[in-house]
Amino acid sequence: MRTALSEAAAAGAAGDVPIGAVITTADGTLLAVGRNEREHAHDPTAHAEIVALRAAAAVTGQWNLTGTSLYVTVEPCAMCAGALVQARVRTLVYGCREPKSGAAGSLWDLLTDPRIHHRVEVIGGVLADEAATLMREFFAARRR
């Protein structure tokens, strides 16, 4: 999660919402990193999770990321939660909750819904204060 926080800080410094993500293999080896790049890439889908998933797929040469874990600083939105399901990610670990768009328990719970063909284990609240501080400081600076 510390690496994801570093990616988040880099995203914020580049003018994007400070969210960072990392993907690890089943044995904990770092596979890929991502950070929000929507502003930089002019791409509405360039969320940290999607960027990390694309990088992991490129490294492995396959879309199926069974057994991997994704660490992200902020609870994923519906798009990103859906992508985790489609990629067959085993575990999601996130920092702070996102009450306005969170799809891992806050607003929706897409990842553990029994109607979906693949369920993702969800662990929330890891280094939540640090992740929330990055978000608060970023948006406070933008409002000034």
Automatic annotation (TrEMBL):
**Annotated active site:** E49
Q: Which InterPro entries match?
A: APOBEC/CMP_deaminase_Zn-bd, CMP_dCMP_dom, Cytidine_deaminase-like, MafB19-deam, tRNA_aden_deaminase
| Keywords (A to Z) from UniProt | Hydrolase, Metal-binding, tRNA processing, Zinc
Give the GO molecular function terms: tRNA-specific adenosine-34 deaminase activity; zinc ion binding
Q: Which NCBIfam families match?
A: PRK10860.1
The family assignment reads: Belongs to the cytidine and deoxycytidylate deaminase family. ADAT2 subfamily.
* Name of this chain's protein: tRNA-specific adenosine deaminase
What taxonomic classification does the UniProt entry list for its organism? Bacteria, Bacillati, Actinomycetota, Actinomycetes, Nakamurellales
Which gene name does the record give?
Answer: tadA
